[in-house]
Amino acid sequence: MHLLTLLSVAAFASQVTLVCGACDSFQVPSFDLPAARHRPKFRYWLPDASVAPSSVANDVTEIAAISAGGLQFVPFYNYGLGPALTDWSVYGFGTPAFVDVLSAALQECDAHDLQLDYALGPNQGAGVPSEPATPGLARELVYGNTTIESGEAYDGDIPLPNIEFNQLTGFMGPLEFWGENELLAVVAGKIVAESLLSGYFYLSILDEFSLIDLTDLTSDGKLKWTAPEGTGTWIIFGIYERDTLQRESVSVDNATTFIGNGSWKVDHYSALGAKKVTDFWDDYIFSDSRISDLIPRSRSYVWEDSIEMQAALFWTPDLASKFEEIHGYSVIKYLPLLFHATNQWNGYLPPYNVTYSLGGYPADGGPYIMDYKTALTSGYEDYISHFSNWASSKGMQYSNQPAYNEPVDMTASIPYVQVPELESLGFEESVGQYRKFTGAAHLANINTISTELGAVSGSAYKQRVTSLKALIDGSFSAGVNTFTIHGYAYSGEYIGTSWPGYTPFQYQYSELWNPRQPAWRHLDELMLYTARNTLIQESGIPKIDVAFYYFEVGYVANGSVYPDADMNTIGYTYEYLGPENLVSEEAIVKDGILAPEGPAYKALVFVNQTHITPNASAALVRFAHAGLPIYIVGTIPNTTFGTSGQSECSSNIAKLLGLETVRFMAADEFSPQVLLGDGVIPRASIHSSNDATSLYTFWTTDTKTGQDYVMINNAGPVGSFDMTFAVGESVPYILNAWTGAQAQVAVYERVDGGIKMSVKLNQSQTTILAFTTSRNRTSVSTTHLVSHSPNVHEIFATPNNTLVARVSDNKAAWVQLSDGSRVFFPSSNGSQTQPVTTLGPWNLSIVAHGPSDDRTLEGNTTTINVGTIDHLLPWTQIPGIEHVSGLGTYTTTFETSGLQGSAAVVNFGPVLNTLKAWVNGKKVQYFDPSDPVADISGLLVEGTNELRVEVSSTLFNAVKANVDRVFSIGYGPYDKSLYTDAEWEEFGLVGPVTLQVYREMVLDI
Prior knowledge:
The chain is 19% helix and 30% strand. The strands form 13 sheets. Strands 2-3-4-16-19-20-21-23 form an eight-stranded parallel barrel, surrounded by five helices. Strands 1, 50, 51, 52, 54, 55 and 57 form a seven-stranded mixed β-sheet that branches. Strands 6, 8, 9, 10, 13, 17 and 18 form a seven-stranded mixed β-sheet that branches. A hairpin with a 2-residue loop joins strand 11 (218-219) and strand 12. The longest helix has 27 residues, at 367-393. The relative contact order is 0.11. The model is unreliable at 1-24 (pLDDT under 50).
């Protein structure tokens, strides 16, 4: 037990008075308790509709209890792959049983004012039940071929297709090889050369001028044609259109209705596929009044996950006519060239072992493939538009993860989605990758950008809350501000499932949140922290310093075009735009600013970009004439995308050469210092000796009130960063996203055009600054603080119009005012102020979680009384609890006396997962776990005080210790080595936990 003497300094408080008057006149409405629409939701995995609706309703109640905002209702059906452990013809997607379960979830969400988003189908939401061979199902092209020699006559059957092309297996629904093959075209061409690419894959080069459409020479499945005279071999292709017959969800073998027969992927490249989905919802789900009556109140999104579809070549019935309408020529004779790896899922494999080309192996497939992708993108935009219009008619919004994985233009497609969504997994949890997505949305005035957050490949039950927070902060750094956490697994009884419960992905992906997680009841603080940041980011328009041009179809996760670190060091924010974004109606330049009513980019930069469209090249000329600084770095983007427009592109790029606002330079000549030297100044400039390479800022402006908000995230080492904010005569406030508190910044300087201040942040710590103009305040501060003596630990504003200075020793201290004068605080006449005091010893008890002997769902919780520990260590180093998962409670006591006029601050040390604390039975106000410091002055009593700390672990150690005793849908972990080969995870209170006493000086203002 420790005796702490808190020194009284009340005698000094009345001696200092400053004129201010604005410390509490500015407040962000609802910041302390944001509405549910701002809070994170959970992706909710439903195993199938055989579960009890009451269990689903209970899960909704649990989600509400931790202050989350709702759920994304995903009927999982084991990724659509089965096995069907119940009768999915009765309990499948869209059945009456499914409607009952969905209704229960929706009604419980309504009771708790939560949002419920609907996956548009089972699994990924890419399909619905359907009669086979009906319009709107996913289509593909396949082919067969044969060869003849020059001058040889062919008179026989059109080559039949090879429908079993190279496919990815394992995580996508299988394609079934039955159904009709409809002849689309017969094409021939002369083979120029053949070569081995690698393994089993070959390249065959065709003579472009020999390609010929022979379709008109066919009749009744026969072709009669003679190859031109000469030398060499000709190849004849029979090209067919068919349904992909790819399952979105399997069912049972004996299903008697199409609804009970599972779901099929729909055509994603026409409105017809979207209409098949919406018709099904209208006819079989929204027709139920229990659901339709609540839709207007649910604030719901209808939603589709990332596209996980396969085809030998993606097709839609009107694609050939759309292609010709866009490009002015027929695609038919070029069809053999389109069966290229770049047109496959994520560019994974060529569909057939031979790829046909007009010369070499172009990485992008060549101009005809580019034209195909343009037409396919147009069809995909039709698909999105139908959903957006339909959702709006229902009082909902449409959200999806647009385009990536497929051969369509992501940046062109994003503006068509009402609430575009990315995912932390697919975008490699990278701020730079997120920015490839956000630019297109921000330019289109879309400020609600969602993410599927927290899916991490590896093992389930391993994700720490601190890691989840880091993903949230990284998302905010790019302007991604709406969160669906991956995820919450249905927690009730299910066939073949033991503790810790139903586990989608068979233990391979994080995370499976539900009340069995030791940290579950600790998540409320993170939910509200996230909601407060979301509220701020959605309160205005994102303002971005620089736009980088980026063009790739489809999207590939390959890092930033330009390094984050270089831009961060100076303070630049930036994001990426594609060619279609540059020709949108929002892309106008006024006074040298691109999209001044939107992101207001101050410069446009091309770094080693090669391709551009004719329209986008023309836009560059307009932008340059309007004064926008444009930087062409490295490779010059003067190659057209596709087969047309090269002369226009070359002409427009040539026009840029002589314009004053355009600079061409080598790649090694460009740096952010070039922008700075040209007067392109960041809105939040950093000029600090500390490492700012991982310091991210994100700026939002509320144009109605004139308030600016800046979120700052330090993903790098601890540092104190000198920053200047271009906010004119505004007054700065700090918004605490952990507590909801709002207060004026106490110490700052006014400089030309803005405000300069020092921002100190630990690693992984964030802060929000608000800058408000005089029209938003009842009075204007005439005097403020600009600096202080080194022994002043901190100065902060209080809600009752005072400034409080905390002094770390008994020596004299001072603060300097903006008028140049200083206010002095005398030294303390009392005894020496105590230094940092380490608390302890501690009593530790743990509520351990684990399986039961009889493989029940709930498992066992066991209280382990560890007893007194003199030194804080991870649980892995404490005998008897080395492999435990659970909640640990630590208690200690200490003595205090002389409380008046001093402050006591406790530092809990590193937070390994979650931590909550109580002093004398009263809860300690929460804090940023990256800066685990709390003021406990108001909770102390004279004499003996008790500090109780509760920490949580993940379930990883308990699952690892029992890896042969955990089951979901009848199976254990798919890859047990993810547990058996891994080290035991460290948890617990590791401290040291310290108490620091400060003298408190009150500046009455």
